[in-house]
Amino acid sequence: MSRSIVRQSKFRHVFGQTVKAEQGYDDIRVSKVTWDSSFCAINPKFLAVIVESSGGGAFLVLPISKTGRVDKNYPLVIGHSGPVLDIDWCPHDDNILASCSEDCTAMVWQIPDHSLTRPISDPVVVLEGHSKRVGIVTWHPTARNILLTAGSDNLVIIWNVGTGEALISMDDHPDLIYSISWNRNGSLFCTTCKDRRLRVCDPRKREVVAERLAPHEGIRPMRAIFTRDGNIFTTGFTRMSQRELGLWDPTNFEEPIALLELDTSNGVLLPYYDADANMVYLCGKGDSSIRYFEITEEPPYVHYLNTFSSKEPQRGMGFMPKRGVDVTKCEIARLFKLLDKKCEPITMTVPRKSDLFQDDLYPDTAGPEPAMEAEEWLDGRDEDPILVSMRGGYMPPKSRELKVAKKNVLESRPTTRRSMSTLDTNSLPLPSLFCFIFPSCSLSLTFFFSFSLPLIFPSLSLSLFLSSSVSLFSLSRLFSCLASVA
User: Which keywords does this Swiss-Prot/TrEMBL entry list (predicted)?
Assistant: First the structure.
C-alpha cells in the first residue's frame, strides 16, 4: 500500500497576482510616520489610507470602485491635531471608521456612501482618556459599539462609542504595547509588550489570565493574533535577529505547538489571518514579498504554502474581509499593498476549472450584524459572530447612522460659538443691528434719541427715553420697540 508523500490541501496551489495598473490607486501620499502600523484599512465598500498632511493628521477614504489616479485635491478626513497612527473599520457597519493619533485621542467617523465632496472634520464622537499618544485601535468582533484603544501610557481602554464612555481601563502592562488581538467571540484579547511578554487578558474581570515570558527570544517587536481554535499565532525575532513565527496554546504556555525560523530581515512581520481558510499571510514592512501558511491539526501544524514576490518594497498592507472577495473567480483573499505613492491590490486565488460556486472554499463567514449589544457583553454574555452565506456574492447593506447618546464625555465638550460671519443679521431689527455692530455708541445714542425722537414721534412719552438704561441690552429693546411703532 503506497503512501502519499505530498500533503493533501485545497489551498496548496494558492497563487497571488497583482491586478492591472488601471485597477490600482495612484498618487496616494502614504504617511511616513515611524510607527509599526499597517497604515491601511479595507472593507467591501471603502479603502482608507493614512496619508501625509500638514498641520495635523489625516487619512484618505476612497470607494473601492474608485480606481485610477487620485486627484491631489481629493477631500481628506482631517479631525486629528497630530499624525494618525492607526485606523480600523467597524465590522458591523461598513460606513463607520475609528482612528487614533499622537494627539492622545481616538475618534469615530461616519463616512457617506458616495465619494467625498468636501473634507470631513467633525467626528461622530471623540474618545479622550489617554495621557499619551494612542497607537492601537480595534473593534470588538461580535458586540455592537465596543472599541478598544491602547496608548503609550501603557493603558488599555475599552469604550462604548454609543455613549462615549470608557467602560473598562486596564494598566497591567509596564511598557509599550506592540499589538492587541481579540479572540473569535471577544471574551479575551492577547497582547504583546516591550517587556517581551505575551499576555492573555480577560477585560471584564480586568485581569491577565495567562502570560508567557519571551515567546521569541529577540528584543525586537512581536505580534500576536488569536486563531479560530483559540490558539495564538506569534511573529518575532530570535536572539540572533532571525525572524521567527510560533503557534501557542494559551492554556499551556510551557512549550510552543510550533516554532519556525524564517530569515534575517529587519522588518517586523505583520500577520493577517483568514479564519475561514485557517491561513495566515505574513507581510513585513520593507519587504517585497508576502508569505502565506496554513494552520492545521497535523504536525508540523503550521505549513508553508508559497510566497508572492514583487519588485517594490511595501510601506503597509490592508486585508479585505472575506465577504469582500470575488467568489466567481475563486478568490479567497485580497490584500492591498501600499507603496510610496500608490496602492496595489493583490488577489489570492485557488485554481479551479469549474465556474460554479465552490462550497469547500467558501464556508459561511462572519457577517455585518452584531451578535449582541454592548450592555450584554459587559454583563458577561459571549456570542460567536453571526454567519452569512457567500453563495451568489455578498451585497453590502445600506448605510446606517451611528447614534450617540450624548452624555458624560460628549456633554463636557464646549459648544461652538457663532461668529459674526455666520450670524443671521436678517432676523435683527435695524436699530438693534446698529447697536450690535456699534456697542460703543450706545451712551451717546441714548441721549440723542431722548431729545430728538419725541419730536419725530410725539405720541411717545419723553419719560420712556429718560428711563431707558444705557446698557446694550436695554437700548436694543428700546430700538426694537421704536421700529415696531414706526
Answer: Coiled coil, Membrane, Repeat, Transmembrane, Transmembrane helix, WD repeat
Residues 229 and 226: their CA atoms lie apart, in Å, by 8
Q: With 80 as the cut, is the pLDDT of residue 384 above it?
A: yes
Cα separation of 269 and 292, whole Å? Answer: 12
pLDDT, mean of residues 471-476: 44
Residues 29-71 have pLDDT tens digits of 999 998 989 999 999 999 999 999 887 899 999 999 999 999 9
Three-class secondary structure of residue 220 per DSSP: coil
Q: Of 105, 47, 71, 26, give the one whose Cα is nearest residue 321.
A: 47
Predicted confidence (pLDDT) at residue 459 exceeds the cutoff of 50:
no
- Whether the link from the prior residue into 63 is cis, omega within 30° of 0, is no
> Are the beta carbons of 260 and 273 closer than 8 angstroms?
no
Residues forming a β-bridge with 284:
269
* DSSP assignment string, 225-283: EE-TTS-EEEEEE-TTS-EEEEEEBTTB-SS-SEEEE-----SPEEEEEETTTTEEEEE
Position 5 pLDDT exceeds 80: no
The answer to whether 479 and 464 are in contact (CB under 8 A) is no
pTM above 0.90, yes or no: no
C-alpha cell at 455: 419730536
Distance, in Å, from the CA atom of 30 to the CA atom of 50, rounded to the nearest integer, reads 6
Q: How far apart are the first and last CA of the chain?
A: 112
**How many angstroms separate the CA atoms of 282 and 71, rounded?**
32
Q: Residue 444: is its pLDDT beyond 70? A: no
Instruction: Identify the residue whose cell numbers are 465596543.
Output: 146
Q: Are 152 and 136 in contact (CB under 8 A)?
A: no
| In contact, 294 and 303? CB cutoff 8 Å | yes
Tell me the C-alpha distance between 347 and 325, whole Å: 9
The pLDDT value recorded for residue 7 is 84
Q: Is the pLDDT of residue 454 over 90?
A: no
Find out whether 407 and 164 touch, Cβ atoms under 8 Å: yes
For 154, the grid coordinates are: 501603557
CA-to-CA distance for 188 and 254, rounded, in angstroms?
A: 20
Residue 321 is classified by DSSP as -
Quote the cell numbers at residue 300.
508540523
Backbone angles phi, psi at 132, to 5 degrees: -130, 180
User: Which SS3 state, helix, strand or coil, does residue 462 take?
Assistant: helix
Render pLDDT for 92-139 as a digit per residue (tens, 0 to 9): 999 999 999 999 999 999 999 988 999 999 999 999 999 999 999 999
- What is the average pLDDT across 452-465? 41
Whether the Cβ atoms of residue 200 and residue 210 lie closer than 8 Å to each other: yes
The residue behind cell 491601511 is 40
3-state secondary structure 399-441: CCCCCCCCCCCCCCCCCCCCCHHHCCHHHCCHHHHHHHHCHHH
pLDDT of 268 higher than 80: yes
- The answer to whether residues 475 and 446 touch, using CB atoms and an 8 Å cutoff, is yes
